[in-house]
Each structure stands twice: as structure tokens, then as C-alpha cells.
Amino acid sequence: MRLASAVGLVLLAMLAVLRIARPPAPVPATAPDVEFSAERAMGHVEEIATRPHPLGTADHDRVRDYIVGELGSLQLRAQIQRATAIGTRYQSAGRVENVLAWLPGSSPNGKAVLLVAHYDGVGAGPAAADDGAGCAAMLETLRALRARKEPLKHDVIALFTDGEESGLLGAAAFVREHPWAKDVAVVLNFEARGTTGRSFMFETGPGNLDAARALRTAGDVTAGSVFTTIYRTLHNDTDLSELALLDTPALNFAFADGVERYHTSRDDLAHLNPGSVQHHGDQMLALAATFANEDLPRPKTGEGVFFDLPVIGLVVYPDWLSIPLAIVALLLVGALVWRVRSGVVVGAAVSLALILVSAFAARGAGMMFTRAGTWSGLNALGIVLLVLAIGAICRRAAIRWSSDRAFHAGGLAALAVLGVVVSILAPGVSYLFVWPVIFAATAALATHWRAVLEWLSAAIVLLILAGFAYATSVVMLGL
Fold first, then answer.
1. How far is CA 423 from CA 230, 233, 305, 321, 372, in A?
2. What is the pTM of this model?
3. Averaged pLDDT in 10-residue chunks for the chain of 479 residues
């Protein structure tokens, strides 16, 4: 029975990882005109990513002219914003040429949804993913929007920024100097930090509860408030860092698997996953339609806590609910501890030790791995096996003075206390602690159907935690 349970849990963990790792299948060019097709978009990538095209080169001008030509073929009047840009995030300046187009809506109030991708690249490679994929997705999205029988309620602005790789210069120039900037009500930015994987929604503007609720309409999204919380502490930047000065709701998307090819010669058409482009485009098209057909400007809201689950989709709730939910989890665990009593203190102490030792062991092991990013999967597997071995040793030690049930209750008590602390300090991260404890404690307290509830609890916990661990360590950080 224990072997069967272990195999079942491994399969569940693999399901969670596969769900994070696999983008949707690319849609063929024969799809209806109003749908996004990665096959059609990849034709644009092929033209854009023929050769490297950094700022100030002949190929940079080639890509600019190609985008202008494609906008013209969609009967959209392209505009080139030429400016000497000065960045606010970096000590950099340069001459840029942003390409813009305006897709008019039926509403006379002039508020617009801004779609953004940068068309410049680095000198090291042809920049198929970063950001040829974003530009191609935007051209295909504009084509699909033009194919609609009814116009959108609000305008859509397409902004192909220049000089992103040189210090976010094009975005800075748009915010400071372009007259359309005052009409922007929502920003959707699309980036890449690899060549494959799902398109994560990893950053938002402030007061993101409303934007996260709107994100649910895109379907099949991969997002978590934990990613936005972590990203806000990092020194990384995209064009959204400059566009944030517009003080509007914003969502930032990127696929990041295959990070070893980022800013290299292998960021090319051959290594770009069409499924990643499809995931980019599915979300871009759906959200452009959602925001442009609803009232603009959007209502002001506070921060949200959100995460995605299969079938259910994106779970979203206000961050002020984090502390009440953490208290509910604590009360459920308190009832469990009261029921078990004997050996719980030992279980809690060993569980805390397990968390700390595993964290330091994982960090130490991660620092020792110096191989190329192509080995990140094997590196991650090694660290997982190390942590599982530590867990097995700790459990073996704990049940000498305790029992499995007491060890379980003690472990949940430790996590429940951490959940309260995290809910106060970083509400966006709280769901990683609160919901696993609520489900596990409820299952442990059940008098009927306990085995079924425990399996359901295990499935939900693994879908939340295993996917998060894989996404952060292997995909985003390229362990």
C-alpha cells in the first residue's frame, strides 16, 4: 500500500510539472480568421529573426520596415516615433524609432488598451524569442482583431518599442513624449527569457486584483501572485518598468524555459517552440478583446492573491482575505493537534528542522551545480532526491518519539504558523502555505472517506507546490 501511494504521489507530481512545462499545441494557418494561429505568427518570426538586429544596425532597420509593411497590409496606418530617449531605470540614452499603430474602437471616449513588444534584439543572436515572438504575436493578434465583424468598444494601440535591450529606451520615450500615452488605460507587455515553455503572467501593476480577475477570461493561464511578489524584489526589468509610470493596470507575460539559449545565437527559429508563441497569442488576443470591450478606465482595486489550477482555472481573491484564511488553517490544525496530542511537539520540531535543513541543503546543492542550463532538469531531480532523503531520515527519527499521525499534525502546525506570518508579511505568497494546510488538516480530521479526502488533498497540494517549485527553480531561474 505504501509503495502504491508513493507511486501515485510521484505521478501526481509529474502531472503538476508537465502542466507547467507544456505550452498549448500550435494552431494551424487554416484556422478561422478570428483565431490566433501560431503557424501564421511563425511566418513573421522567420522574417524578423533572419539575422541579429540590435539597435543602430541595418538589420534593425530591416525589421522596422517589415513591421511597418505588415501593419500596412492590415490597413493600419503605421507611425514611427523618432526620439532621443533617456532611460529612468538605467544610465542610458540613445536614438530610437518606435513603431505604433492605432486600431479604432466604437467608443468615443478615446481610452485604449496598449499592446507592447520590443523589436530590437541583442547582437549575439537573431532574437527569435526575445522578442521576435512578441512582435509576431502582436501582428497576428491585430490581424485577428481586424477580422472581427464587429469592432471592439475601445481602441487598441500596438507599440513595437525600440531600444529595450539598450536600457528600455523606446518605452521611456513613449511615456514621456508620445501624445497617445495619455490615452492608455491598460498595458499588456509580452517578453521572453528562453525559447520554450508556457507564457507566464509574472508581473502586474499595483492594485492588481481587477487585472487578475480579468485574466481569468483568457483561459489556460499560468500565473501566481507569488511570482509577482518575487519579481518585485528582483532587479530585473522589461519595458513594463518604464510603462509603469503611466500608473495604469498592467500585465506582463513571458516564457522562460530554455533559458540557456537566452541572448545567444541559439535564440533562433529552429529552437523557438511554436506552442509558446501560441500561448502568448491566445492570452494577448483574449485579453485585448476583454479589456477593449469592458469599461475603461478600469476600477481602482487593491492587491489580489491568485493562482491557477487545472479544470478550476485561475483562483482570485483580495489579499485582505489572506489573514482570515490563515487563521482558519490554524484553527483546523489546532483541532487536529488537540485530537492527537501525544508526540505533536516532537513532530512540529522535527518538521521545522526538516524545512530549514532541506532549504539549506537545496541551496547548497544548487550552488554546486555549475553545468550548462541544458542540465537544469537533472540538477533539479538531484536536489529533489536529496530533499526527499532528508525528509525520510527526519521522519524515521521523529517516529521513535512520536507517531506518523503526530508527525503529520506537528508538521501541519509548523506550516500553519508560517502561513500566518507569511500572510502578514507577503500576502501574495500566502496561498502556498494556507491552502495546503486547510486541505490536509480537513482530510486528517475527517471521520468518513478519509482516504479519499487525503488523496484529494495530496493532489491539490502537489498541483500547487510541485508546479511552483518547478516553475521557479527550473524554468525561471534555470537552476
1. 15, 17, 10, 9, 36
2. 0.91
3. 66 71 92 97 97 96 98 95 91 94 89 97 96 98 95 96 96 96 97 94 94 94 92 89 95 92 95 97 97 94 93 93 97 93 79 76 62 63 78 77 81 91 96 95 90 87 82 67
Helices 404-425 + 431-445 axis angle, to 10: 150
